[in-house]
Amino acid sequence: MLACSVGSCLLAVLSLLLLCTALFTDYWLVAFGPSDTAHSGLWQECRADVCVSPPHVTGYIQATRAFLILGALATAASLLLSVTSCVHIPVSTNLLASIAAFTAGSCTLLAMGVYTGESWHKNQDGQIQVTFQWSFYLGWAALPLLALSGESRAGVLGGGGQWV
């Protein structure tokens, strides 16, 4: 039971670090052109080492931002509830931590799915190669860790199937 608690906390910390890094870095997409390279994230676009915030943010970027922020907040809540599981209160913090982790995973899945779906065929120029990069993959990497965190927290069961 202690191993599940510690494992769940470690997975939640790692997930939170991955989500925050993905959220605030600008290597989601990289475009390699014949003479220049550009990269972009959820908050800014960079070309020739000059980064600017786009004047108009499309709806799918706003949705990705919103769901990733919600996912990070739910992950932080899951971590907080996991840490406070030793405090005896009328509501099971193990159950709440597990629900928060699965909620964070759902928000992350929505965010990453929206971004992937909208960015998949973004390149219309044959001379430019557009690829997903490490910030994007960090967002996807947080998803299975959140599922494992929620599952390991759900595995902290007492006798008779009651949440402890």
TrEMBL record:
Subcellular location: Membrane
Transmembrane segments: 63-83, 95-116
Protein's UniProt keywords contain Coiled coil: no
Keywords, in A-Z order: Membrane, Signal, Transmembrane, Transmembrane helix
Keyword Nucleotide-binding: no
Membrane-related topology note: Multi-pass membrane protein
InterPro entries linked to this entry: PMP-22/EMP/MP20-like, PMP22/EMP/MP20/Claudin
Gene Ontology cellular component annotations, sorted alphabetically: plasma membrane
Signal peptide: 1-22
PANTHER family xref list: EPITHELIAL MEMBRANE PROTEIN-RELATED, PROTEIN NKG7
Protein name stated in the entry: Uncharacterized protein
